Amino acid sequence: MEIQALLVTFREVLEALLIVGIITTYLKRTDNKKYTKFVWLGAGLAVLASLGVAMLFQLVFTGFAAMANEMYLKIAIMIISALLLTQMVFWMAGHSRELKGTTEDKMNKFISTGNVVGMVIHSFLVVLREGIETVFFFAAITGGNIGAAMQGWGAITGVIIAIAVSYLFFRGTMKVSLKTFFRVTGVFIILIAAGLLVQAISILQDLEIIGSIIPHLYDLTWFLPEHPIDYQHYLRDHGNAPLLSGDIGIFLKALFGYSSMPSIEEVIAYLGYFAGIYLLTSHRSSDEVKQNSKKETKVLETIAGNQKR
Predict the structure, then answer these.
(1) Helix, strand, coil in percent for the chain, rounding step 5
(2) Which long-range CB contacts under 8 A does 277-281 form with residues at least 24 apart?
(3) Distance between CA atoms of 293 and 244, rounded to whole angstroms?
(4) pLDDT means per 10 residues in the chain (309 residues)?
(5) What is the largest CA-CA distance in the chain?
(6) Cα(278)–Cα(272) distance, rounded to whole angstroms?
(7) How many Å apart are CA 125 and CA 281, to the nearest integer?
(8) 161: closest CA among 191, 125, 185?
(9) Considering just the CA atoms, what is the radius of gyration of the chain in Å?
(10) CA distance 104 to 19
(11) Which member of 103, 121, 173, 177 has the greatest number of CB atoms within 10 A?
């Protein structure tokens, strides 16, 4: 759970800090530093609002638990979080290149019209979006105990690393490009999303909401049990211990949705998810190539027109 919380918090906080940092840097560069306080005001209000959402979410989850329906809410949260994590990765991959220009254009409009309220609302919405997503992800990886995730070392470490990275980036000392940086962290986020999706299917099958054609497609308990209890059971039943500890299995299950005895539906969903990611990535890449070729054609046509003149 802590590693998941670290990765998710790191990505969410970093995205928020990058946008806020772009805004404040632009204001300082254009001699509009006086507006910086309004940007931080919006960001601060968004943090408070996110904490309020977390508390409200916890109350709702507790209510479902009192009605013995918390498993259904857990399943919904896992599926929604998997979709949000996937969307987050693709959004940043598609907008990281133009993020700076788009943000500066918006702030330029606010400055030219003296729209202070717009600045506050813009920074508020940017940070609030990341905050609400974080609440969802914490609920998914902890089974509804959002407070435990917020107080754990993973979330705290993620915030600290995000602050350090954003500081190095705006100081100009970080040499890695943002696109490469988000691509690498995006791989881990995608793995977490796939794990949440498979865990949701596993719970649905445990509750017998959906069936299974092959409940156990293979059994890797002899090699890597997914829980220390499975390790003990295998040792008791076979007289020899599995090759790897169940503590490793529970770590991989929490992080990537590992299962030593998955159903065929879990395997299909896991592989299908990555196949879908591959197809979406390939489609996006082809679109980018077409857009770049169109831009190059326009540039060449402009050059040719100027030469004729």
Answers:
(1) 80, 0, 20
(2) 277/86, 277/190, 280/90
(3) 52
(4) 78 85 85 88 92 85 69 83 82 67 82 86 89 82 74 84 84 65 78 87 88 90 89 89 87 81 92 88 62 50 51
(5) 89
(6) 10
(7) 28
(8) 185
(9) 23
(10) 10
(11) 103
Grouping H, G, I as helix, E, B as strand and the rest as coil, residue 171 is helix
Which of 131, 141, 248 lies closest to 189, judged by CA? 141
Pair 27, 107: CB distance under 8 Å:
yes
Which of 20, 42, 26, 45 is CA-nearest to residue 167?
20
Nearest CA to 234 out of 219, 248, 256 is that of 219
HSE-up (13 A, CA, CB side) for residue 51: 7
- Packing angle, helices 70-95 and 116-142, rounded to 10: 130
Token representation of residue 225: 């049990």
3-state SS class at 150: helix
pTM: 0.70
pLDDT value, residue 41: 93
- Dihedrals phi, psi of 223, to nearest 5 degrees: -100, -55
Handedness of CA 185, 186, 192, 196 (dihedral sign): positive
